[in-house]
Amino acid sequence: NLTLTDQTGKSQELNKLRGRYTLVVLWSASVPAAVEELGDLEAYAYQPYKNVGLNVVAVHTPAGKTKQPTEVLAKLQPTFPTLNDTTGALWDKLGKGRLPRTFLLDAQGK
Fold first, then answer.
1. Tell me, what DSSP letter sits at residue 1?
2. What's the half-sphere exposure (Cβ side, CA atoms, 13 Å) at 29?
3. Lowest mean per-residue pLDDT among 6-15, 22-31, 34-43, 63-72
4. Which residue of 43, 86, 89, 101 sits 20 to 30 Å from the alpha carbon of 61, by its own alpha carbon?
5. Verdict on whether the full-model pTM lies above 0.85
6. Would you say 4 and 14 are in contact if contact means Cβ atoms under 8 Å apart?
């Protein structure tokens, strides 16, 4: 189980997302393709499927020379949870690579 913080600094345990399919997107504010994907997630994943059992969570990672996500999130205003992986724990666990990285977890979190 990993605990990450949301944009207000409140801790969020990822294991609490179990019970529903969850789309986890690792992104960085300094990667244009990752920023673009956040807008797409809102329109094409979260809004159409949130009421039929799909969670969407965007996790800002410390990959590379990352700028803070505050400005991007203020502009896009996603309605799904956005968390910060400030220690890089999730980034390390899921394997480093190009951003954005998207994972679909089943209801058991696998």
1. -
2. 17
3. 63-72
4. 43
5. yes
6. yes
